[in-house]
# Entry
Amino acid sequence: MAVGKPEKIDIASIISRLPLFVEVPPAQLQHVAAESRERRLAKGEMLFHKGDPARGFFVIIWGQIKLAFPSSTGNEKVVQVLGPRQSFGEAVMFMDRPYPVLAEAVSDAMVLHIPRKPVIELIERDTSFALAMLAGLSTRLHSLVHDVESYSLRSSTQRLIGYLLQQCPAEGKGTAEIELPTSKQLIASLLNLTPETLSRIFRDLGDSGLIEVHGRLIKIPDIARLREVDF
Amino acid sequence: MAVGKPEKIDIASIISRLPLFVEVPPAQLQHVAAESRERRLAKGEMLFHKGDPARGFFVIIWGQIKLAFPSSTGNEKVVQVLGPRQSFGEAVMFMDRPYPVLAEAVSDAMVLHIPRKPVIELIERDTSFALAMLAGLSTRLHSLVHDVESYSLRSSTQRLIGYLLQQCPAEGKGTAEIELPTSKQLIASLLNLTPETLSRIFRDLGDSGLIEVHGRLIKIPDIARLREVDF
DNA sequence: CCCTTTCCTTGATCGGCATCAAGAAGAAGG
DNA sequence: CCTTCTTCTTGATGCCGATCAAGGAAAGGG
# Structure
């Protein structure tokens, strides 16, 4: 199977547009860019396993990567599905510990590996970069806390509704159409459900007129009403 | 009702034991400690409202604080209930945004307010401090990720066993005795269980001879055997 | 010491979600 | 186009853990 698009990649320009690096003067980024390496992955290919040593972090150029806990019984738990311009692995990099999750390409994909050393040097040289990284990690902590909360005190239907509302473009009212970004299987695992249960919830929400399901296209006739639902 | 215990508080030592600061050399923390202030709260008292500017973050010395989204209809949405040694508001502090939630004392409580400025100044003056903070935040992220794993792919019995093994002094084999550090109610909530279910699991494990329960003292006759259990 | 309150335990019942099983609908590939 | 594989849906059944209800055991407080 061919591994995706063959265009030449400008590492420096991609790095400079990352949220994490956007405030950093381009000159200071040259060192980081020079040491970074691109890597292509075929669908299903592993980027790293749980327990592998972390020598840097990754940024997705295109394609999708999932982070998940392996499970001996086959039903692994997907923690996140990440898309272009998103990064992962920064936190582990600072602790000198192995990865706590595995990373696998969900589609053909290309990632950039940014090694630990130039990043640390950049932090030591540029305090505003250090602050940007702290803000980035803080944001991630926040969303993880939110996840834990969802698992523990929201029902499966509520979790799906929350997911759908998250996908809505703006905080708009009225109507919306959502193109699911990945397979329903993956979404099920993200929401800590089996595919069967997810399918049933989709049907129930459809029967209630709260959403319309057309394959992977979801129509929401009344966002406000969906937000008010309290099962 | 009197607002809690009157002991003298050693701010510096509390700060130095925070997860966020645990990697930071104590000498560097003096400036932060000097600008920190303690605050006592009666049950039900508000610490801050949603939308208030974030001028720092908080650490709970004792008592419990809840974080929640306000609601005009009175049925607010609780995001988290936090206990001693837990901190909150760091993420928002680094992002320079107002608090997205409100904080209210669930019981009589005492918190430490650590202002933003000395923390930021330390980062700007000493890059090793920034690295230490990044490591601290990373550690928290790591443990949260671990929590998510527990919730999603381990049974309630496995979670309790994991908790008990965590409390074992060394990674010893053989036998162990554990004094539960808090009420069983709280442990239940930590493990995402009801008190009833926790009680039943304790009884079942006792019936199997894997542990002995004497009130809040737990005896483990064979640590290795407990670790092997696979329900 | 008793009284009140909180904490813990036990039993009965219920429901949500997983599991098992099988079929339908798409997507990919020759 | 037909075959094959994956993804999605639907049904039947079962179990784990929550909930409801009540009683016992500690723990503080007067």
